[in-house]
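question for whoever is on the cluster today: can someone run the full assembly for these? two chains, 819 residues total. i dont have access anymore since they changed the login thing
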Amino acid sequence: MLGIRGKLFVTSLVLMLAVGGATLIVLERGLGGFLRARLGTDVSRRVSIAQSWVEHGRHARVAGALDDDALADSLGMALDAHVTVFDEHGKVIGDSEHEPSQLGDMSNMAKQPEVRAALQRLRERAAHPEVKPIERARALYAAVPFERSGDIGIEPWRKGVVRVGVSTIDVESVLDRLRFFLFLTAIAGIGVAFVMSGLASFWASRELVSLVQSASAVATGGRGRLETASSDELGSLAGSFNRLVERLDRTVAELKGERDRFGAILGHMAEAVIALDSDDRVELANQAALELLELAEVRPGQPVVELVRAPAFADMLPRVRAQGKASAELAVGKAGSRQVLARAALLEATSGVVVVMLDVTEMRRLEAMRRDFVANVSHELRTPISIIRANAETLLDGALTDPERGPGFAHAIVRSSERLGRIVADLLDLSRIESGEMPVRLRPLPIADVAFRVVDSLQIQARARSVVLSQDVPEDLEPLCDEDSLEQILTNLVENAIKYTPSGSHVGVSAAEEGGRVRIDVRDDGPGIEQRHRQRIFERFYRVDPGRSRDMGGTGLGLSIVKHLAEAQNGTVELLDNEPQGCVFRVWLHAR
Amino acid sequence: MQQRGHTDRVYEAQLEAVRRNLIVMAGRVEEMIAHAVKALVERDVDLARRTIGQDPKVNHCEVETDQLCMEILARRQPLASDLRFITLALKMVTDLERIGDLAVNISHRAIDMATEAPLKPWRDVPRMAGIVQSMVRDAIDAFVRGDANQAQAVIDRDVQVDEIYTHVIRELLGIMTADGGSVERGIQVLSVAKVLERMADHATNLAEQVVFLVQGKDVRHLGNCVE
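^ ran it for u. tokens below:
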């Protein structure tokens, strides 16, 4: 494949050769033709001279007869040509280049076309047309008829044909020299053409080649402009190219900015976003999606069913393709622990799908809590109310006057109304703590006293259930807390521990300082609490074993109150496993 | 895995469809195990009924995948790893379908036992269920990634399930011997544990097939095969 320079070179070379060649051919043809034409005219003139000489000249005679051969010889001398004279029958009677003795052998000369034509004209006495010389055997021949009126008695009337032949060798040699000359010129011309076309193509292409080189440098990612000094078309091409490059740079920068902005928005969105192509393969997933689905990375082009295994998701995809929109709630994560609301929308243009996922675990938990709370509070209130009502009705139906059973019913009413009162009081406490109405005065407090008081007051209860109660709180621990609140916290926790552990268990209160905070533990060695209850155990009315705790006289609000009181003192409460069995309720308070 | 380019795009798409079907089916089965055991522990009859209602979808998946595999076998005559993939897919759907059926079985137990007080707090059965669920998930994960090591880990986990199963049997025997009234409930719990143990066996099958698919090595019945 030729480069632009090669193409220019070949083109200009061919052009120069063609022009030179044509010139040579025209020169050779024209000059040759001209010389031949001149020679032709010359021959015609000479034959006319010969004719008039033969017709009118005074000639040497031999024995009274005209010596035709001598005539031919003298004519040949005079005209510097080969002159032949024929009689009217075509017989050669004189020739300038042959001896008379040889003339007999020249009979076939009459058959030459020019001689025959002249003989023909002689016979027909045709008018004198212009004589056309005929070229043959490197000579031009022309023949004309003649009629010579003889002198009466001396010379007979003679008719015949005179022919003049002039050699073309001179012309040919001139032409040959010309051709040789032209040949030399052509060789030199080719050499010059070679050099000239090379130079021309170099000059023409130099600019272009440099443009192409810098353009390909720009194309392969290098930055830069095309530099050109010329103001011709190449210059304006370079200008256009430079403007194009600038516009391209701007567009790329804009797109990059757009992409970065889009990426930043996607990356910082709280919602997980996954974009799918028309074949349900992942095109894009943001950071939130990776976190929500607990994935380390997503390969672009990975089928989405590999990432989200929840059947509800697989079922949603055909729906979104059919209806344009769909949503589903699914469990994701390694243990299916997170509840996710996925909304999918079809992209009409690409028939891809965008799925936005929102973690609704906490929302669903709160919903369940509220639902349970309403159900629980109604249930908790209804039970004592129905007991009161049933007992009151029984009393009204006549038991009022029954001295034996009457008081029993009345006691039941009292117990239930006390229970109602406790529930209402607890609920009020809770709402007061929550709304911050309950006065909490934080001050450094020696908690050993409080722990001792609580344990002491619950000893009777513990002994009744054969639970061993102990306390081991260092005297010098004085965290920031509110005395009444802490007393209630410990009372609730220890009371719970006594109630829900089998007889013979140990319940202990201990405390220690740890990392600027004080932890107070209430531990037991009972059966413990199942994992699934742990998260909800501090909710209001949440019961691990509903029937049993109500029998124990609990309101279902104790731990909830503990939690809120701890938080009111800037503390926390947590539930841990006790070794080898049982559980630990741990309250954290700030050290002084 | 299975990412090699086939000249025929339709063929490629068919193999991909089989793969996706298997993944979706495994997802359904996983969820069924989780829901069945949750229904059992939380005495949620409604959830148990819904889990039973999922079974037809799993069956449908099985039939669909079977047909797809048959079509590929008949019309494409797959060779080498493609052939291995198709034959194993045929086996894997069977195992997955069986696990689905077993989850239905647990759901029925859950409905039966919902009205009775639990024998003791559920501890070992949910643990077993968690392991089985993770076995199915990891077997399919290994299948998706072509990860023989992960598949091997699934096979090794079967031992844990067996150990818990033995422990459960012993504990239940103790309880039932001590208290004649607990025999009926004990047997129900025992049957649930048995079902979970069988599920683990099916999950092990899945994992063995993945090892075979990836390495071309048959790891079934190692050590107890009559030569």
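summary bc i know u wont read the tokens: Chain B touches chain A through 21 residues (CB under 8 Å). Residues 9-215 of chain B form a domain with the Methane Monooxygenase Hydroxylase; Chain G, domain 1 fold (CATH 1.20.58.220).
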